[in-house]
Amino acid sequence: MIGQFPHRTTRPVSTPVAAASADSKSHFSPVARACAVAALLAAGAATAQITINTKTGAVHNGATGRTINTIDRRYQQIEPTHVPLTKSELDAKARLDLIRVLSSEQGFAMRPFPRGHKGLTLKANGKLEPVGEGYLDMVTSEGLSAKPGDRVVLTDVKIERSRIVFELNGGPDLKHRLLRHIEIGAGPDVTAPVVQGNGEEPVGARLTLTFEDHVPELTGAEVKALLAPLISFDVKTPVQAFTDTLPAKLKEAILNHHVLVGMSTEMVLFAKGQPDGKSREVQGQMPFEEWIYGKPPHDVEFVRINGNRVIRLEIAKMGEKPVIFTKDEVTGLLRTDGTPLEAAGDANTRVAKVGDVERDPDTQAPAAPPSLRKPGEKLPSDNPDIGVMRPVQFPKQPDSTPDPDAQPPASAQPPPPDASQPGPPKPQPVPPDGTSQPD
Fold it and tell me: How far apart are CA 203 and CA 174, in angstroms?
């Protein structure tokens, strides 16, 4: 027997080996096609049993035991994962937590993602469907949504009975695709469609993760591990990139989905996501917004926001008294502009503090007093030949009380006459003889 073929035949492909397995309507007979394949793979062997698998795109030579792939390795079967799965079924609370964690998550494509309504199907800890030529046909006919290495976003997550459906980059279907075919109007000539479309075709993809009987209780990390052969989530997500700039206490609270008084609305959204409800009220002269997370019988959190900050947190549990938090735990960790006051978790980073620096008197010397001395300038006191300057002694002032018995010194000048008092008469000059005295 020269060649053995399965019941199904394959379409022509661009590779020389696959070209030998032509369509059944080809002009070449099956014996001629088998001879051509045997000549290419067995390299002149007289007889060889060859099996062509049209499902995986592989050609196996039974005589030599060699298998040659005729399809790119990116379309071949994946290596199954080994993630431990529990037998308990996913409950309603875990379902909501899983959707909240996975929604808007970002990663990088490890395989080509085709467009189209069907998409790829991955069995948990199992194999991928389709693979081989079926995988390549889907990409060729529907188009490529994301190639390996492209960033993909989980825009929608739907959890059904035994599968989880992920919409990537907006999904492959038009929004309201049924309502687009309905028009409303007063007559046959005056109608308008219910949904106004812009005509843009969707460019997203769909990925379905299937389980045996039901979706077990899973965490976000376990789902990411199951999707690892197709999507890598090792790259930092926006939440991780944002929290890496925060202090350790605040980062831990956001990653654990806890709200602290003093958080900004952006931090609350990263920690808890969009609230289940909102209400606006006024207390006195202060308006505020109440964000509500959760519904009874589960825990309900009331986050009160004024402006852009959380000012009050109330946690209500079934059968327990509500717990209210009003102490600000965040403002002391951040500057007024929202940047961290101290580096978060970096032992090689030294923080230089400016201003009034506190010193430990037991281990640090006191700071030098301020001085107007220029750099390199010396004072007279720095010269050892010059004595130490001592305080100047001013002369004592005499007592201002006059002594009546004391005589003024001879050298003392009489006090100047007072202009307000008449002075002594001035002596008149004596005229010479023979002159008359003037009147």
Answer: 10
Those residues with Cβ within 8 angstroms of residue 367's Cβ, 6 or more apart along the chain or in another chain: 359
Note if the pTM is more than 0.90: no
> Do 229 and 158 have their domain in common?
yes
Give the integer Cα–Cα distance in Å for 125 and 131.
16
Task: Indicate the range of 24-33, 124-133, 226-235, 371-380 predicted with least confidence.
Answer: 24-33
Q: Say how many domains are in the chain.
A: 3
Model pLDDT, residue 159: 94
Q: Is 304 among the domain residues? A: yes
150 within a domain of the structure (yes/no): yes
Domain with 55, as residue range(s), is 16-70
Annotate the chain with three-state secondary structure.
Answer: CCCCCCCCCCCCCCCHHHHHCCCCCCCCCHHHHHHHHHHHHHCCCCCCCEEEECCCCEEEECCCCEEEECCCHHHCCCCCCCCCCCCCECCHHHHHHHHHHHCCCEEEECCCEECCCCCEEEECCCCEECCCHHHHHHHHHHCEEECCCCEEEEEEEEECCCEEEEEECCCCCCCCCCHHHCEEECCCCCEEECCCCCCCCCCCEEEEEECCCCCECCCHHHHHHHCCCCEECCCCCHHHHHHCCCCHHHHHHHHCCCCCCCCEHHHHHHHHCCCCEEEEEEECCEEEEEEEECCCCCCEEEEEEECCEEEEEEEECCCCCCEEECCCCCHHHECCCCCECCCCCCCCCCCCCCCCCCCCCCCCCCCCCCCCCCCCCCCHHHCCCCCCCCCCCCCCCCCCCCCCCCCCCCCCCCCCCCCCCCCCCCCCCCCCCCCCCCC
User: Quick check: is 20 in a domain?
Assistant: yes
The half-sphere exposure of 62 on its side-chain side, counting CA atoms within 13 A, is 12
Evaluated on CA atoms 62, 66, 70, 74, the torsion sign reads positive
Sign of CA dihedral 368, 369, 371, 373: negative
Q: Are residues 22 and 98 in the same domain?
A: no
Q: What is the pLDDT of residues 222-273, one digit of tens each?
A: 999 999 999 988 766 677 767 777 888 888 999 889 999 999 898 899 899 8
Alpha carbon distance 380, 389 (integer Å): 9
Return the higher-pLDDT residue of 50 and 161. Answer: 161
